[in-house]
Design brief:
five-stranded parallel beta sheet, single chain, 4 domains, alpha/beta, disordered C terminus, Rossmann fold
Amino acid sequence: MKGKILVADDDAAIRTVVGQALSRAGYDARLTSNAATLWSWVAAGEGDVVVSDVVMPDDNLFDILPRIRKIRPELPVIVMSAQNTFMTAIRASEKGAYEYLPKPFDLVELTGIVGRALTESRRKSEEEGAPAAKPEHEGMPLVGRSPSMQDIYRVLARMMQSDLTVLINGESGTGKELVASALHDYGKRKNGPFVAINMAAIPRDLIESELFGHEKGAFTGAAARSTGRFEQAENGTLFLDEIGDMPMDAQTRLLRVLQQGEYMTVGGRTPIKTNVRIVAATNKDLSALINQGLFREDLYYRLNVVPLRIPPLRERLEDIGDLVEHFLAKVQREGLEAKRILPEALQLMARYRWPGNVRELENLIRRLSALYPQEEITAEIVAAELDAGGSGESAHPPVLPTDVTISQAVENNLQSYFRSFGDGLPPPGLYQRVLAELEQPLILTTLAATRGNQIRAAEVLGLNRNTLRKKIKEHGLSIFKGASSG
């Protein structure tokens, strides 16, 4: 046997499936349904790795994890949880868990994580203790239980105790600054300042001064020395939003900071050492900007140490219920009257295209709370607001009609596509392109509806499970990497 794995879960089906998967992989799996037995095994020195659910009938894993870490700091604990929220991932990291796996998960991925944990624990006799527990905060900085958000939570949890540079990519309104703020607030620099600067909002000739500060007389109008954002963010985090809009001269200065850990103020002559974590964000394709000569390739690689993509809201429509509940509570705390969104209204929101992403959804909830006296918000009210877009006009119908068949919708889109070529025709290969473009959203939507469960998705689609796996791989649908395949 490769090692003894202690598995704790009050769900008999999960215990059995996990136990069988570990046994097939060559491990000795011991199974229990309660925390008391798990603790007795650990206290007796048994087991090389722990795989445990968070909530069990007699105790909570997060309550006993500190005790496990105290008596056996070298024992890796892999946390399973159906409570797939950002705070669950963060608490798992803070309590010293080796890894966090949201349910449902891939059994091959689980056995792979167990193998890595076992290898690492045998390589070193002791590890550092878990970081100090952080007081619970009201609400959560990030909201959503979709597979794509679970991937983000897991990456963030791994990055909390690191100073690695993170590059966040996402459309406007997806919450890039919220992610950057979460990295800071729950990381080791949380006691330092979090300073944000938006490159697109500052005149290009002032960006260097804003970032690095300037000396008195450095340029016309510089009547006194001014501190820059790097100095303001010392020992904390500097968030560089819309980094793709940074001028080339400022890019060169930023590269020097990342390479040498120092900078000079505008007009200054003495290098200044800096201790700042950099988190950058963009809604642009930096690779395209590099090809156009508008962004330094060497700076891109310095920034893109840990890439993180924030999905648009249309890719995580299953999160709309949680987001609406979050925003309703938020506006109520701000003094607006409590509202309730009826199920039909939520269904309508789930069919909207959300060009403005999460920010647009939050603005909608604010309008509904402020402008409508009704306690219950109906589908008719939501439809009117979505159609108007908050401005009284709609350039494109934003809501997908329910009385149009799939074939009619495809035909309408194809007619628009052909018209876009004027008197000409589309390039060759249209048949395969259309099939591919239909297949990808069909698989994505079905996986989202089944919360990433590939067995159920295959049944709904009428596909063989191996065929579905092959198509997921072909389309590069990596956001479902941690989904259950059975």
